[in-house]
């Protein structure tokens, strides 16, 4: 069975894709002297806190697609579904540093944790202050009592949005970190997987979802979820996914939220909207007010079918930061 | 009479390690596929192959060759394996700098140092279902064997047994670390991929050293 | 075999998706009294030429995703892969008319042709002047000698972009029509399909591409192409697709072009960039200058795998119109 | 002695047309799948079902019922079938307004008018591999049969034969219109979906009329 995908050498998909990104979007991406680090062209900006992220490839537009004006300044790019190296994180930090320190906002995975930790140490040795926020918005990955074990998923986008806007607004490093931390603390996510995906270098699916079934709580790399159940209509699926998010009690009636619905890659866009309509309906019933919604392929997993739901509760500060303009491949806002 | 391992070219020993990983690429990914994301063999083989291109044909001390291996992983692959094995091999490399002959005590120091470098970066404990379940018993039994006055060869074989037992022990464990930890009880019943690659490496190291005992 | 997708009633996917679009994006969509017509909220704008389009569903973000500021004013929405009704086109025309006439810019399919024709007649009876441009950018669908038979594909987006910008710039109806016509006349497209898709109401794929094969020249509804050949690496695929586009002779060395690469739905985004890198390389070799590039899921076919390539040759007028700001779901620009 | 078809309730005749389409939904889609996009049955059944909900239980002249069918298609489904069949049924409806009894000549006028309404909107010719390959021969043979002085029943049966032959003729044709036309030579060898649905409709109309000849 041949892999029916659009690639050259399956071992060089990341390199090849980076070439394309840089060729297509010089307005967003400058190369650095690390081939796995891209930066926003006008970075570093003196006096502005630098925003760095990084993560495995295959989640496009995450992570590099959120490099842009008022969002991420530099990104470290890993292999498919695998953390970037410590060296890449370090060079991204160096690229983003404008003298006001660097906020490294990334997701809670063992590899990323270790590589960022090593990079932060080396950055300190090079005179760059780096502080971190680790996204852990995925309610399916551990109980609330072990929140530090939860994965970071599409909520990371809202963390970058808020952190990037704070940095652009002139917050200092501690301020940016506090805002980004609040964003992710106020955020809850969950995913549902309907089909698997194939890493080109592997050549076959590394997990399986039986036809007619769905995996509730699936991770962005196919990590198994809470439960495998028969496929539900969009209406029930929305309820199933909202349940563990709403039980945590932070989205009470009257609260204002941002909702982000992302496809996992192969789900037709119109279905994300069919799904969103059901989420919207339930939230209205519960008296939760949607201040802003994002629906689309914001954080994917190659060609998996499925959907993730993220919600962030707003206060006045977060609302201002979420509403601020942004200009990146993955998110553009007036 | 104290036995020593004589290492003419450290590249040969590291090439042994590279070969055992590269030839088990698909096997390791398959194991990782059961409860992880199916890429362990790919990640490992990629890093070890990078090292191969860097050291092939060179003459290096074992310390230097291991440092190349560590750099190849840390800078070449990232993920978890970059820092984890990178730290282990840094630990090994650092403690035998400049040496071309290794005593039992040297090897013991090397193994212990790798373990402690790993502990600096990973909180993993025995029983967590990860490479530590292979590495720690291997190191500890080698230490004990040296303390008990076993021969170099005996100590290496005791270590190999412990590594294999450690690897096998992961089968019945519930993962507490890494991607598989999200699975809870569902992670039981299969070997851990990292524990398996670690067993391959420790075993190969033992074999490569044993072959050079003078 | 169950359909593993995110829907409620397979016969109501269009209705359900429209609900979601309107709920998620009140800034882009207002309902009209025709349930299959959506319009930009501040439309009609007195004195501005109205821009209308319409087409089958399943191509999201096309067609409705290009409703927005400086692009499409009102859209008629059809069933999956099927033309909207004449009534829907008519009501979209009525919604978009600000007294300066309406430009209906749509794609060359039998159904659309007939329904638009009927709608234009009825609009005239209601006192609304409507002129049309029919996109026929797909080089694979007929030889250049029978250009009037060619399908409209992703080049339509550039036609809307240009037409929308012209209307926003105050062009009169004939001017808008001339600009949009020039845009599509200067445009050539071709698609490659790697896998099929399933219309929910049908429940099984209605065509088949063998694993390891690709269909060169496939249509947006799976219409068979020119050729079924073994899957090529991205590099060769780019050459294969550029060949029939470049032979038409309009993109000579020294010309400036817009390149639009769209995924067909399920192709991972990073692969679109792998592909783009190869296109970019070949165009550089040929001395064709890429003025602007769009890469992403701009015009999809449910969950088909594959890619389409569109190129539009620029003159000064088209360049100005393409570069103008735009704000829609599918395309946002400065 | 001039035979007439007596139509007490036009809804019954149109319901016959609806039933033949709805019960052939999957068959028509399957045919369309070979060289089209596989939705012909879906499109048709959707429109005809819309008509069903609009006319069920009502009492209408055949003209009124056909107008409902036309509107249901034109306003309900769009695509190509909306305008194409919509125009045909508009043509039929318009030429028999107010009538509850139809002569051969009435039916002939009705069929001819449907054909000419269709021609207003579609440039399709016989041999293009589309519903015209069924419809035109059916209409023309009915005309000829009337001219030749055949009985009502004979004329209807001659028309049915012509429709079936027309449908079958599409098998060896290269499509010159509609989606299948992009296929060139590859469109040969299978029936055309529209010609097939048109044959079902013409045949059913003939049967429903024949059953009501007084
Ligand atoms: N924090 C950790 N400490 C020690 N070993 C770990 C840790 N996290 C993961 N591992 C090991 O990593 C292995 C998986 O490696 P690999 O598949 O290459 O990386 P990834 O999980 O990022 O895909 C697991 O089988 C486990 O043995
Ligand atoms: N211009 C036309 N005139 C007459 N019949 C046509 C024309 N275009 C298409 N057809 C008929 O339409 C049929 C396909 O109908 P359908 O599948 O419902 O629509 P679509 O092709 O839009 O999916 C073809 O089999 C052909 O008979
Ligand atoms: Mg991995
Ligand atoms: Mg893994
Ligand atoms: Mg169709
Ligand atoms: Mg069809």
From TrEMBL, chains A, C:
Residues 9-331 form the DhaK domain. One of its GO terms (molecular function) is glycerone kinase activity. Transmembrane segments: none annotated. Keywords: Kinase, Transferase. It holds the Pfam family Dak1. InterPro entries: DhaK_dom (IPR004006), Dihydroxyacetone_Kinase (IPR050861). GO terms for biological process: glycerol catabolic process. PROSITE patterns: DHAK. One of its GO terms (cellular component) is cytosol. It comes from the Bacteria. This is Dihydroxyacetone kinase (DAK1).
Automatic annotation (TrEMBL), chains B, D:
Keywords: Kinase, Transferase. Residues 8-207 form the DhaL domain. InterPro entries: DhaK_L_YcgS, DhaL_dom, DhaL_dom_sf, Dihydroxyacetone_Kinase. PROSITE patterns: DHAL. The keyword Protein biosynthesis does not apply. GO terms for cellular component: cytosol. GO terms for biological process: glycerol catabolic process. The keyword Kinase applies. It comes from the Bacteria. One of its GO terms (molecular function) is glycerone kinase activity. NCBIfam families: dha_L_ycgS. PANTHER family: TRIOKINASE/FMN CYCLASE, TRIOKINASE_FMN CYCLASE. This is Dihydroxyacetone kinase (DAK1).
